[in-house]
Design a protein that fits this description.
5-stranded antiparallel beta sheet; 16 helices
C-alpha cells in the first residue's frame, strides 16, 4: 500500500511538474506576443501618418489572423472568434479573421447585447466558461447548434488608455473574445480563463486599432465614391498649386484622363482655360471663396459650349490653417438657355398680345369716331367680326398661358369628358376654320370611315387639332398640302396625324419640340409667330387623355405629328384621377 501510495504521489508530482513547465511555456509565449503587439502598435502609429492606409490595414488584418491562430493554439481550441460592439444597433457582430468558421457563418453570427453568453460577458465585463454549451441556458441555442459549439471560454475585449505614469485613465469594452471546443475531448478550466484574459488585452488593442483603421478606410472610400458620383465637377488644389483631387465629372469637363493627372501636376499645367486658372489662382492667393461663370467648349464636340458656375471654398485643417482650395463646377447651360427662352417668350407673348389688341383698339376707335354714319352696316359688321375674332385670339392665348401655369404647378388639366365625340365632325370644323388663314395651302381630310364615336373632352381635342394644323400651315410658308388623317390602330385605339410639306425639323431638335418655350431658331423660322407653348400644351392634353404623341420629320420634305386616343377613357381609382375631372363625364 505504501509503495503504491508513494508511486501515486510521485506520479502526481511528475504531472504537476509537466503542468508547471507547460504553463511556463505558455507564459513565455504570451510575453512574446505582448512584445510583438507593442511593436505592432508602434508600426500602427507610424502608419497612421502614411498616405497608404489600405496597405497598413492589410498588415493589421494579417496580424489579427496570426493572433487568432496563436490564441487557439495556446488554449488548445478548435475555434476562435471575436465579436465587436456596434453602438448604433447595440449589437455584437462577429468579424474576420475567425478560426474554425466559414465566412457565411461569421456573417450570420450577430446578437443583441441583451442576448446569450456574448451579451452577458459584454454587459458584465466578466469571463464565462461554457462546460456544456448546448444545455447552458445562457447560450443562443440556434448559434450553438449551427456552429457546432460544445464548450468554450468567453472574455471581454477591454481597451485601456493610460497616462505617462501608466495609470488607467479610460477603460472601454469594445467586444467579446471567444474560444470554443477544447481539443482532445477536454474542457476549459480557470487557468484557461486567466490565459485568455491576458491574451485578450493584447488582442483588444490590435482589434481596436484595426477597427478604427477599417472605419477610416471605409469612410474615405465612401467619401471618394461620393465625390466621384457627383454630377458637378470637383477640383481640389493644394497651396503649392498641385491637384490633389479631381472627380470624373471634372475630368470630363476638361477632357482629361487619370494619366493626365499623374505625377502631382499643377493646375495650370493640366487645365488650359485662362478663366478657370484665374479663379483657382485668385482663391489660392487671396485665400477667399470665389464665384464666377465660365464658358468652356465641350471636349468631344468643340462647337458646343457649356456654361459653368464655378464656386471655390477654402479647405482648412484642425488648426484652422488653409491647406487647399476646392472648386465646384456646376453646368448651368440649360438654366441659362431656359432664361433666354423665357426672355424670348415674354417678348413673343408681348407681341402676340399687342397684335390683336392693336386691331381691336383700331377698329373700336374707328367705329367710335364715325358719328356721321360714314360706314354702312355691312362694313360695320365686318369690323365687328374682326374684333370678335381678335378677342377669341386673345382668349385662346390667355387660356394657354393659364394652362401652362397649371401644368407647371403640378396640376392636371381639367377635362370635361363626354361620350359620343365625333372625330369626323371635329376635323371638318378645324379644317374649315383654318382655311381662312391661308391661300397657299390645300387642306385635306383622310379619315377611316370605321372610326367610332369616342369618349373625350371635345373642346380639348379641337384645341389639339387646331394647334397642329395651324403649326403645319405656319411651318410650310411656301404652301403645299396639309393633311389631317386618322385610322383605327385596334378596336379601342385611334391614331390621328397632321402632315405638311414644309421645312421639316432637324433630328437634334425632335426631342425638344414638346418643351415649353422651345422654338426652332433659324433664318427660316424667325419671322414665324408663336409663343413656344402650343406643342407643350398639345402633349399634355394628349397624355391627359391617356394617349401618346410623337413626330416624324425630314428636313426640306415635311413633318407629321402623330397622336393616339383611346375610344373610351379608362376608369381611374379613387383619388388617382389623372384625367382631370371624371365627375364631369357627360352622357353623349
Amino acid at each position: 500500500m505504501t509503495t503504491g501510495g508513494n508511486g501515486d504521489v510521485e506520479s502526481l508530482r511528475q504531472r504537476l511538474r509537466e503542468i508547471e513547465g507547460e504553463l511556463q511555456n505558455r507564459i513565455q509565449y504570451v510575453q512574446r506576443l505582448e512584445k510583438a503587439n507593442r511593436e505592432l502598435e508602434q508600426k500602427v502609429r507610424e502608419a497612421s501618418e502614411s498616405a497608404q492606409p489600405t496597405a497598413e490595414l492589410n498588415e493589421l488584418e494579417e496580424a489579427l489572423k496570426r493572433l487568432v491562430a496563436r490564441i487557439a493554439m495556446i488554449l488548445q481550441a478548435e475555434k476562435c472568434v471575436f465579436m465587436i460592439h456596434d453602438p448604433d444597433e447595440d449589437e455584437l457582430f462577429a468579424d474576420k479573421p475567425a478560426l474554425g468558421f466559414t465566412d457565411e457563418q461569421v456573417k450570420t453570427l450577430r446578437v443583441r447585447t441583451t442576448q446569450g453568453v456574448s451579451g452577458t460577458v459584454f454587459r458584465e465585463n466578466k469571463p464565462i466558461i461554457l462546460y456544456d454549451a448546448a444545455n447552458d441556458e445562457r447560450t443562443v441555442k440556434e448559434n450553438v447548434a449551427l456552429l457546432g459549439i460544445r464548450n468554450g471560454v468567453c472574455v471581454p475585449l477591454i481597451v485601456e488608455k493610460r497616462d505617462d505614469e501608466n495609470r488607467v485613465i479610460d477603460r472601454r469594452t469594445i467586444g467579446v473574445l471567444h474560444v470554443f471546443n477544447k481539443r482532445y475531448g477536454n474542457i476549459f478550466i480557470e487557468e484557461d480563463v486567466h490565459l485568455l484574459e491576458r491574451l485578450a488585452r493584447n488582442a483588444a488593442s490590435i482589434i481596436n486599432t484595426a477597427e478604427t483603421y477599417r472605419r477610416v478606410v471605409h469612410e474615405k472610400e465612401e467619401l471618394v465614391e461620393t465625390i466621384q458620383s457627383l454630377y458637378a465637377g470637383l477640383v481640389v488644389v493644394n497651396k503649392n498649386g498641385r491637384i490633389t483631387q479631381m472627380n470624373s465629372s471634372a475630368m470630363q469637363i476638361f477632357g482629361l484622363t487619370i494619366d493626365d493627372l499623374s505625377g502631382g501636376k499643377t493646375y495650370d499645367a493640366v487645365i488650359k482655360d485662362d478663366k478657370v486658372q484665374q479663379v483657382l489662382r485668385q482663391a489660392l492667393e487671396e485665400e477667399t471663396g470665389v464665384a464666377e461663370e465660365v464658358t468652356l467648349a465641350d471636349p468631344i464636340n468643340p462647337d458646343q459650349q457649356h456654361i459653368y458656375q464655378v464656386q471655390s471654398t477654402l479647405v482648412r485643417n484642425e488648426s484652422g490653417d488653409t491647406v487647399s482650395t476646392a472648386a465646384i463646377f456646376n453646368d448651368i447651360t440649360e438654366i441659362r438657355n431656359v432664361d433666354k427662352m423665357k426672355t424670348a417668350f415674354v417678348s413673343t407673348v408681348s407681341h402676340e398680345l399687342r397684335t390683336p389688341l392693336t386691331s381691336i383698339k383700331g377698329f373700336i376707335s374707328t367705329l367710335l369716331q364715325d358719328t356721321d354714319g360714314f360706314y354702312d352696316n355691312e362694313t360695320r359688321h365686318e369690323f365687328y367680326t374682326i374684333i370678335d375674332t381678335e378677342c377669341d385670339r386673345l382668349t385662346r392665348l390667355i387660356t394657354d398661358l393659364l394652362n401652362v401655369s397649371r401644368i407647371e404647378s403640378g396640376k392636371s388639366l381639367q377635362l370635361n369628358l363626354k361620350k359620343g365625340v365625333n372625330l369626323h365632325d371635329l376635323c371638318e370644323k378645324v379644317v374649315r376654320a383654318q382655311k381662312s388663314y391661308t391661300t397657299k395651302h390645300e387642306l385635306h381630310i383622310k379619315l377611316d370611315p370605321a372610326i367610332p364615336l369616342i369618349e373625350a373632352d371635345e373642346d380639348k381635342i379641337d384645341q389639339i387639332l387646331t394647334n397642329l394644323v395651324n403649326n403645319a400651315i405656319k411651318y410650310s410658308p411656301k404652301g403645299g398640302n396639309v393633311t389631317l388623317h386618322a385610322k383605327m390602330m385596334s378596336t379601342d385605339l385611334v391614331q390621328l396625324g397632321v402632315s405638311d410639306e414644309g421645312m421639316g425639323i432637324p433630328k437634334e431638335q425632335l426631342s425638344k419640340m414638346f418643351q415649353r418655350f422651345h422654338r426652332i431658331d433659324n433664318r427660316d423660322t424667325r419671322e414665324i409667330g408663336g409663343t413656344g407653348i402650343g406643342l407643350f400644351l398639345v402633349k399634355n392634353l394628349v397624355e391627359t387623355h391617356h394617349g401618346k404623341i410623337w413626330i416624324e420629320s425630314e428636313v426640306g420634305k415635311g413633318t407629321t405629328f402623330f397622336f393616339t386616343l383611346p375610344t373610351e377613357q379608362p376608369e381611374e381609382e379613387e383619388g388617382g384621377d389623372t384625367g382631370g375631372n371624371l365627375a364631369s363625364r357627360v352622357a353623349g
